[in-house]
C-alpha cells in the first residue's frame, strides 16, 4: 500500500510532521520554519502545543535540519537525550529510548547543495 493510500503525505520542504503513534499513525502535529529565514534556530516546547512526551514517529522535509530533544532530565539534546538529522527523512518507530520522551523540537534551514549530511543509526533494529 502506498503512502497516499495510507493517508500519509510529505510534510513540505520546510516542515516536520510528528505523530503520537508508530508507523505515522494517531494524532499529528506539523511544525514549519520560515523558508526565507536561512539562519538561526526555531524552537518549540512541546508543552506549548500539548505534545510533550508523545512522539512515536516523524517525517521531516528536505530543507530542514532538526533536533528532537529530551531535556526534562537536564540533557543536552545529544546522545541519549536527543536525535538529530537533516534533509528529507522519516522514522516510523523512534525506538524504546526516545518513544514518548520528546519535549523540545529545534529546527533550522538546511540546504544539501551547501552542506552535506549523513544519516547514521545506532539501534540494531533500523
In short:
It is built from no helices and 8 strands. With 126 residues, it is mainly beta.
Question: How would you describe this protein?
Answer:
The structure is a single chain. The protein has strands spanning 15-21, 25-32, 42-45, 57-60, 64-69, 82-86, 89-91, 104-109. With 126 residues, it is mainly beta. It has a four-stranded antiparallel beta sheet with strand order 2-1-4-7, with no helix packed on it. A four-stranded antiparallel beta sheet has the order 3-8-5-6, with no helix packed on it. A hairpin with a 3-residue loop joins strand 1 (15-21) and strand 2 (25-32). The radius of gyration is 14 Å and the shape is globular. The relative contact order is 0.23.
Number of folding domains? Answer: 1
Give the N-terminus to C-terminus distance in angstroms.
21 Å
User: In CATH, what is the class?
Assistant: Mainly Beta
CATH architecture annotation: Sandwich
Shape: globular
